Amino acid sequence: MVRAAVSLCGIELDNPVIPASGTFGYGYTFAELYDIDCLGTFSFKGTTREQRLGNAQPRIAEAPGGMLNAVGLQNPGVDAVIAEELPRLKQVFHKPVMANVSGFSIEEYVEVCRKLDACEQVGWLEVNISCPNVHGGGLAFGTDPKAAASVTRAVKAAVKKPVIVKLSPNVTSIADIARACEDAGADAVSLINTVLGMRIDLRAKRPLLANKTGGMSGPAIFPLAVRMVWQVYEAVRIPIIGMGGVTRAEDVLELMLAGATAVEVGAANLVNPYACRDIVLDLPQAMQNYNIQNLKDIIGGAHHG
Amino acid sequence: MNEVRFTLTENARLAPNVYRLRLAGDASAITAPGQFLEITIPGFFLRRPLSVCDWEDRSVTILYRAVGDGTRALAEMKPGKTIDALCGLGNGFDVTACREKTLVIGGGIGVPPMYSLAKRLLAAGKTPAAILGFNTASEIFYKEEFEALGIETILATADGSAGIKGFVTDALPEAFDTFCACGPLPMLRALCSRTEKPGFLSLEARMGCGFGACMGCTIETAHGPKRVCKEGPVFRKEELIW
Known about the structure:
The complex is a heterodimer. Chain A has 10 helices and 15 strands.
């Protein structure tokens, strides 16, 4: 009998599989399809202080081995999330949920995090400093170590729950950003957010996305994720949540060997709504195939020996 | 919604770049005309949303336009192949909300969903009429199929090479009491400004997932943001902001 449980910032997960923010809504749509209690947890849709309608259409484009999105943080705003989304989620999900937070100023991050910190259902705060699809916020905090540290420090001072800082791959050294977040008190880091990309419509001869650029996700970015998780594992001692192009149980093992304590799954949910359930179901067999008895034992395993 | 492995039984060219795809398999998730499937095309990451033209218990007919890399690859697929799809997506046309004399109006590749809508309206004892709009005579498809239903079928072409010369708005009859339409946005907008009658419109959007998860296809409506894939693709005309 293999053991898939891991511990993330002091909270036990039955398994390390976590649907990534922006691909799982607030959970209940997927709960119509399968029992989402089978997941380790999930990271809900990026939430801001005010309601956001997001970017103009089109927001989605196909890419070789993946997709681009430029949704632009559409969400109903933190107060509506707490009043409407979380109570609906409570009916169908009975584990701590990961609250994903975005902002356009340090004050906004702090205010939204403080409100969600007070919610019993929330287990962790995942602070997104890496959204590539909004202007004047998000990514601006995630590409500079000092700014990343400022957000981390301010949020940490305002909340009690573990703070996970979600990092951008669109930087020269993700390890430097991760180290700055660790020094500022982050309890964990999650990476990678989407990779900045673009498609051009050959007929219109214009960028395909209304936002012009978008975030690339899907299997094509998986090796980037493995490399960056590896680099960050060498740079910090806090846990890492690995993500980027994960589609199957073997990918979970690979990211954990690179240094991830848990793994988020994003774009795969959009083409196979059962992707995360399938990964959870396949994980024990994949572990047996590679002689892994206890998943905790392989975290960062590729760095040793 | 359910996930179905269909067998491709027909993939025939009907007009330039327009194909009829017939799939055999469980179609029980389809409950209303205007719903769509998200089908997997080998070699492409995202599924492609394609509207249902008609369905039976164990088969689905889809008419699609090969317009991009994905649909062009689909056009190459031969009978006998399996096709994975998410079936029965979106909110379709509500036949019970359509009054006695309902106009079903399709423009170009917006024609297909109007076919099963006309059939269901007939089955509900109503007397629909159809307006089919195309650019030119060589692009016409499914006119005979609509006529075979025994309903009044009005044809319009922009260049006048067949039927009435002009757009579907130039072919509106005097007497009708509801309209349902699918086609290019300018056509839908023109219809809404030309008539005060109750209307239901089916929208198209670039989608990520097709089942409400990614927010990729959200539009702003009079009642707040709505997902074309989940709350739509069919909207009441009052909901839309032009």
